[in-house]
Amino acid sequence: MNITLIYWLIPSLIMFCCGVYGFITRKNMIAMLISLELMLNAVDINFVLFNRYLFPGQMEGMFFTLFAIAIAAAETALAIAIIINIFRSIKTVDVQGIDKMKF
Amino acid sequence: MDITIPALILCLPLFMFLLLGIAGCKMSHKLAGWLGCLGMGTCLVLSYFTAFTYYFDPQFVAENGERIQHTVFNLTWLQFTDNLTINLGFLLDPISALMLVVITTISFMVHLYSLGYMEGEKGFQRYYAFLSLFSFSMLGLVVATNIFQMYIFWELVGASSYLLIGFYYTKHSAVSASKKAFIVTRFADLGFLIGILVLSYYTKTFDFIKMTSDPSWVLASTEGATFMGASVLTWALVLIFTGGMGKSAMMPLHIWLPDAMEGPTPVSALIHAATMVVAGVYLVARMFPVYMMEGAATMFIVVVGAATAFYAAMVACTQVDIKRVLAFSTISQIAFMMVSLGVASLGNGEVSHHGLGYMASMFHMFTHAMFKALLFLGAGALIHAVHSNDYTAMGGLRKYMPITHWTFLIGCLAIAGIPPFSGFFSKDEILSACYAWSPYIGMWMSMVAALTAFYMFRLYFLIFWWNNPDYGHHKPHEAPLPMAIPLVVLAAVSCVAGFIPFGHFVTWDRMPYDIHLDWTIAGTSIVVAVCAIALAWKMYCKENGLPAKFKNALPALWDWCYHRFYWDELYMFITHKIIFNGICRPIAWFDRHIIDGTMDAFATVTNKASYAIRGLQSGQVQMYVWVYLIGALLLAGFGVLCLIM
Amino acid sequence: MESVGSIILYVIVALAMVTFSVLAVTTRKILRAATYLLFTLFAAAALYFMLGYEFLGAVQIAVYAGGIVVLFVFSILLTSKPGDNSEKLASKSKTLGLVAALAMFCTAGYAMVARFMNFVTLPEHADPDMNLIGETLMGTAQGQYLLPFEAISVLLLACIIGGVVIARKH
After folding, report:
1. How far is B613 from chain C (nearest CA, A)?
2. Cβ separation of B619 and A98 shorter than 8 Å?
3. Cα dist. B360→B342, B344, B432, C8, C99 in Å?
4. I want to staple B137 with a disulfide (CB 3.0 to 4.6 A). Which of B157, B596, C39, C83 is the partner?
5. CA A86, A87, A90, A94 torsion: positive or negative?
6. C38, A38 in Cβ contact below 8 A?
7. 3-class SS at B167?
8. Cβ atoms B328, B359 nearer than 8 A
C-alpha cells in the first residue's frame, strides 16, 4: 500500500472541521482560540503536503507555513492580551456575554 | 477731462453707503445724517463742476458746433471675445451731464429734507446708507458707457428702491409693496436683458457710442433676420423698451408705482418721482438714434405712452391718498416724455420737429424732476403736520403752513403749465412736437394736459382750501427748517428753469438748437389749463355738493377711475386665480406627493427593512461565523457544480 | 510500496491527529483542551519530520508547542479556576456546529477526492538542508524571502507593542 496525498489530506480536513465545530459551539473565548489554532494548523499541513507531493524541488509551501506559524504566534499573543483585558473588565471570558455591539 | 473728479462722483456715494451701512449703528442719528448730507453735498459740487466744464468748456465742442461724447474712462471688466467686452466707464455727453445735475440736486435736497422728516425714526442711519446706495447706482446708470453697465446699475437702483420702499419693514403693506415693485420690475428687466442679448448678438457690441454714432450699421447688422413676422431689431428694441416700461411705470407694468408710496415720502420724491422712474426715458433717449431707425418699435412707444398718460391722469382725478395722486401724476408725466421721444424719432425726414421732441422730452424730464420733487416734499411736509396721507384729514391748511402752501402752489402751477413756471415751457415743447407729427396725438395730449391741471388743482384746493376741519389742540405746524429750505430752493428752480435755453445744451444730434415758442399751441394750452383750474376752483374751493353730484352723475366712470380701472384686480386674478391655481398648485402637488413621495417611500422602506432585519445583528460572533461559513460553502458548492457541469 | 513500519507510523500519526483534534473541541475542561491541542501539534510536527522538513518540524514544536500552548495555559490559569467545567452545550448550538462542520467536510472532501484520488505518491527527493533554507530565507534574489522576513519582524514588533498596550493596567 502506498501512502498517497489523499491519505494525509483527509486527517487534515477532519482537523479543520473540528476547528470549525469548536469555533461555533464553544462559549469560552480561549477554547475558541484553540479551535482557531486547529484550523490554522490544518492549513499549514496542507501547504507542506502540497509542496512535498506536487512540487518537491521548491520551497514555497514550506516557507508559507513558516511565516504562518510566526503570524499565528503573534495573533495568539494579541488575542490572549485582549481576552485577558476583557476578563479584567467584565469578569468573564464567555463570548455570549460580549454583545455591546448589538443593535 | 481728468479722471479724478468723475471717479470721485461715483465713489463718494458708494463710500458713504459702506461707511453708514457698516459703522452707522455706532453713530448718533445727527452724525449719520450730517455725514450723509456732507457726502452728497460734495458730490453735488463735483457734479456741478463736471457739468459746467462739459457745457461751457470749448474743448468739448467740435469744429461744426457739435458737442462731443467724451469717455472719461472705460475699464474692461469682463472679456467674452475680442470685440465683445463688458466695460465699466464714465461717459460724459449732454444727457448724462444733465442727469448728473438733476440726480445730485434732488438727492442733496432729499438728504437735507430727511434730516427733519425722518427725525427720530428707527433705522435712521440705515435710511441714509440706502439713500447713498441709490445715489451711487443712479449716477452709475446715467454715466454708463455701454448697455450692460447700464443694466448692472439698473438692477442696483431696483434693489435700492426695493430696500427703501420696504424701509418700514414691520408694516405689512410696505413689505408687500416692496415685493411688488421688485417682482414687477424684475419681470420687465427680464425683457430688457433678453433685448440686450439679442441686440449684442447681432451687433457684437454693447457700446453706446458705437451703436448710436452710426445706427445704420446696426440696422445692417440685423438685416434679414426676422422673428414671428417682425425684424429682430424691432424685437430687440421693444424688449429693451419693456425694461424701460417696468422702471418708468408704463402701462401695463405701472402697478408697482402707486404702491411704492408706502416708502418714506422723501424717498418717493427722490426715487419714484424724480430720478429712478425716468430711467426708462433715459434709456430710450440713450438709444435714440437706434430707435429712429426702427418705426415699429417707436410706434409701440407712442401708443403705450399715450394710453398711459391718459389712464394715469383719469385715475389721479379720483384718488384720496395725496401721495397716490402724485404717483399717478408722475406716471402720466413720464408718459408725456415717452410720447415726446416716440414722436421725435418717428418724424423721419422732417427736421423741424425731429430734434424738438427729443429736446422737449429731456427738458420736461429736468423740469418735472424739480417740480415733482417739490410736490412730493410738500406732501411730506403736510403728512408730517397732520399725520395722515388722505386729503379728507386736511383742509384749510393755507393758514397754518404758509411756506408749504406757496411752494406747493408753485409746483401745481408748474405742472399745470401756467407761464412763467418751468412746466409750461417743457410741456409746450412736447405738445408742439406731438402736433407736428400728428394733430390727433397732439389733441390727445392736450386733453391729458388739461386733466393734469384739473387733478393737481383739485388736490391743491382740497388740501389748502375746501373746509376748515377742527384740528383740536393738535394744530398743524409749519415744516421745520431742514424741510423748508429744500422746498424753497426747488420752488425757486421751478420758477426760473423754464427760461434756460435748453436747446443749446441738449439735443439729439448734440448740435445747438433754437427753441421757438409756437404761440398758437402755447396759447391754446394756457387757455385749456386755465379753464381746467377754474373748473377745479368751482368744484373744490369751498365745501359744496358739486363733487358728490358729479360722482353720482357718472357712477360707473368714477368707480373705474377710483379703482384704477381694476388693473390690480386683473393682476390679482391672473396671478392668484390662473397662475397659482392652474400652474403652481399642480406643480406643488406633484412636488409634494410624487417627487417627495418617492423619496419618502425610499426612506420608509429602508427604515422599515432595517427595523425588520436588525435582529440579525445579534452581537453573537459565532452566529456571524456560521452565516459566513455557510455562505462561503454555498459559493464553493456552486463553483464545484459549475466545474462538474 | 511502503515499508510496514512507515504504514504503522502513518496510522499512529493520522489517528493521533484526528483523535486529539476531536477531543480538543469536545472536552468540557478547558485545560485539557489545551493539552489535546498540544498533542495535535506534536502529531503535525511528526508529519513534517516524516516528510523530511526537519527545520519546519522543529519550528512547529518550538513556537507552537513551546510558545503558543504555554500562552494558552497561562491565560487559562488566569481566567478560570482549576476544575471548572464549562456548561453543557445547548443542543441548538451543537446542531449548528455539526451542520457547519459536516457541510465543510463534504464540500472540501468532495473537492479533494475529485482532484487527488489519482494516487499521487511521494516523489523521491533529497531533503532541503539547512544551508539552502538559510540562503532562501535571507536572500534578496528572486524566490528568496528577506522582504517577507522583515515584514514579519515588523509585525511581531507591532504585536509586542499592541500586547503591552492592551494588557497593561490603567
Report:
1. 21
2. yes
3. 11, 9, 9, 129, 105
4. B157
5. positive
6. no
7. coil
8. no
The C-alpha cell at B445 is: 395730449
Q: What is the pLDDT of residues C11-20, one digit of tens each?
A: 999 999 999 9
How far does CA B461 lie from the centroid of its chain? Answer: 29
Tell me if A84 and C112 make a contact (CB, 8 A cut-off). Answer: no
The residue count of chain B comes to 645
Measuring CA to CA, which residue among B298, B300, B307, B308 is closest to residue B254? Answer: B308
Quick check: B620 and A95 CB within 8 A? yes
Q: Where are the alpha helices (H) located in B250-390, listed in sequence order?
A: 256-259, 265-269, 279-286, 288-292, 295-316, 322-346, 351-386
Domain ranges, ordered by start, for chain C: 4-127, 128-170
- Can you list the positions of beta strands (E) in B216-262? 226-227, 230-231
Q: Is A65 exposed, middle or buried (0-12, 13-18, 19+ CB in 10 A)?
A: buried
pLDDT tens per residue, range B250-287:
888 888 888 888 888 898 888 888 888 889 899 988 88
Inter-chain CB proximity B633 and C96 less than 8 Å: no
The three cell numbers locating residue A55: 512540487
Distance (Å) of CA B314 to CA A20, B113, B586 = 99, 31, 40
Q: Classify residue C169 by burial, with Cβ atoms within 10 Å: 0-12, 13-18, 19+.
A: exposed
Alpha-carbon distance C20 to C36, whole Å? 5
Q: What is the mean pLDDT of residues B1-6?
A: 83
Cβ neighbours for B3, distance < 8 A, ≥ 6 positions apart = B72, B73
At A63, list the grid cell.
516557507
Tell me which residue of B106, B85, B118, B158 sits closest to B264, measured CA to CA: B118
Considering the segment(s) A5-97 as one domain, its CATH architecture is Orthogonal Bundle (1.10)
| Cell numbers standing for residue B531 | 379753464
The DSSP secondary-structure symbol of B73 reads E
Three-class secondary structure of residue B207 per DSSP: strand
Q: What is the pLDDT of residues A20-34, one digit of tens each?
A: 999 999 888 899 999
Q: CB of A91 within 8 A of CB of A83?
A: no
In this structure, what C-alpha cell is assigned to residue A61? 509551501
The answer to whether C56 contacts chain A (CB < 8 Å) is: yes
pLDDT in tens, B279-324: 989 998 888 888 887 778 888 889 999 999 999 998 888 888 888 8
Q: Which amino acid is at A76?
A: T
pTM over 0.90: no
Q: Does B459 have pLDDT greater than 60?
A: yes
Torsion-angle region of B228 (φ positive above 0: left; ψ -120 to 50: alpha; else: beta): left
Single out the residue of B457, B638, B587, B613 nearest to residue B535, CA to CA: B457
| Closest CA–CA distance from residue C112 to any residue of chain B (Å) | 11
Q: Is B81 part of the contact surface with chain A (CB cutoff 8 Å)?
A: no
Beta bridge partners of B466: B542
Query: Phi first, then psi: what are they for A55, rounded to 5°?
Result: -130, 70
- Given the DSSP bridges, would you call strands B85-92 and B226-227 parallel, antiparallel or unpaired? unpaired
- CATH topology for the C4-127 domain: Four Helix Bundle (Hemerythrin (Met), subunit A) (1.20.120)
Determine the residue among C56, C94, C96, C144 to mutate to test chain A binding: the one whose Cβ has the most chain A Cβ atoms within 10 Å. Answer: C56
Nearest CB neighbour to B640, from listed C97, C100, C107: C107
- Cα angle, residue A55 at apex, residues A54 and A57 outer, rounded to 5°: 145
Orientation of helix B172-203 relative to helix B232-247, angle to 10°:
160
**Burial group, residue B514, by CB count within 10 angstroms (0-12, 13-18, 19+):** exposed
Q: How far is CA B61 from the centre of its chain?
A: 32
Would you list the domain boundaries of chain A? 5-97
Query: How far is Cα B632 from Cα B550, in angstroms, rounded to an integer?
Result: 100
